[in-house]
């Protein structure tokens, strides 16, 4: 039995789907199924009841799951526990950062880097919110600035900022307007970037749009804001983006961003970390305490200049095409490496 057998088992057990677990593990379904069968043969127990439509844990699988998660947690924690035991040193701490992060939060992160420079070499790691939270849970990242909501076991969330969202609309139809209502968009199609590239809050927005009578939807295969804007410019469709995107010069002749009159969507951003690592005996207690002090202070008024990327949440890093950047440290660098 190898450690990867347990990792594969936990992925299938948590997803109750071989295909979803395979996507999470970035592998094909057939080798994943073979590895699970290998594990079952070695243990002499069937771990899953499965047919073409359903996957369920057997009593043996249910009994193995907490033990497997405990073993994986201890295994993944070995590097930083060893460094903790060897004593203080200037350590590298990776902080996850979502695209389109507000400039004021970037300023606070820069202040944290300066404040902790004697003890930590704080480095930034780009990605989308889901992957960054998972990396914090694994211990690959010390903390992450992500879009909320976040509901993850063992994770502490400090909410920092709410940014108003507006409707991205074709300028030919709405160029002279100062606002728009959902009732005016029932004949329009809602367009979004690729599934998985937007914060989970946008799933809630879809429910609200459908309740307002907006049922037509287009999901693009790429995750950049510019592509959504190009589709909107064609007319009869709309998107939802940061209201501050309306101050950008690009595309202002073909699209506009307007506030909703009957709807007040806002995208929340927060700082997340592993609760156990912030405790007084945790390896990141000093860093996370300093981060809490830096980020918890009231934010100043937002600057007039627009964002660099209004709502490109694809996880791409500057200079990379959407999807080319790693979603989170794909495997260590560990945050204290």
Feature tags:
337 residues, alpha/beta, two-stranded antiparallel ribbon, 10 helices, 36% helix, flat, disordered C terminus
How large, in whole angstroms, is the Cα Rg? Answer: 22 Å
* Global mean pLDDT: 83
Element string (H = helix, E = strand):
HHHEEHEHEHEEHEHEHEEEH
- The tally of beta strands, per DSSP, is 11
Please identify the structural class as seen in this structure.
alpha/beta
Helical content band: 25-40%
Number of discrete helical segments: 10
Weakly predicted, low-confidence segments: 301-310, 312-337
- Give the terminus-to-terminus CA distance: 27 Å
What overall geometry do the principal axes of the alpha carbons give? flat
Fold blueprint:
Elements (H helix, E strand, L loop, with lengths): L2 H13 L2 H8 L3 H15 L4 E3 L4 E3 L1 H28 L4 E7 L5 H13 L4 E7 L2 H10 L4 E5 L7 E16 H4 L14 E4 L8 H11 L5 E3 L5 H9 L3 E6 L12 E4 L7 E9 L10 H12 L41
Parallel strand pairs: 3-4, 3-5, 7-8, 7-9
Antiparallel strand pairs: 1-2, 5-11, 6-9, 6-10, 6-11
Structure summary:
By secondary structure, the protein is an alpha/beta fold. The protein is 36% helix and 20% strand. The C terminus is likely disordered.
Please characterize this protein's 3D structure.
Strands 3, 4, 5, 6, 7, 8, 9, 10 and 11 form a nine-stranded mixed beta sheet that branches. Strands 1-2 form a two-stranded antiparallel sheet. The longest helix has 28 residues, at 59-86. Helix 1 (3-15) packs across helix 2 (18-25) and helix 1 (3-15) crosses helix 3. By secondary structure, it is an alpha/beta fold. 36% of the residues lie in helices and 20% in strands. The protein has helices at 3-15, 18-25, 29-43, 59-86, 103-115, 129-138, 171-174, 201-211, 225-233, 285-296, and strands at 48-50, 55-57, 91-97, 120-126, 143-147, 155-170, 189-192, 217-219, 237-242, 255-258, 266-274. The protein has ten helices and eleven strands.
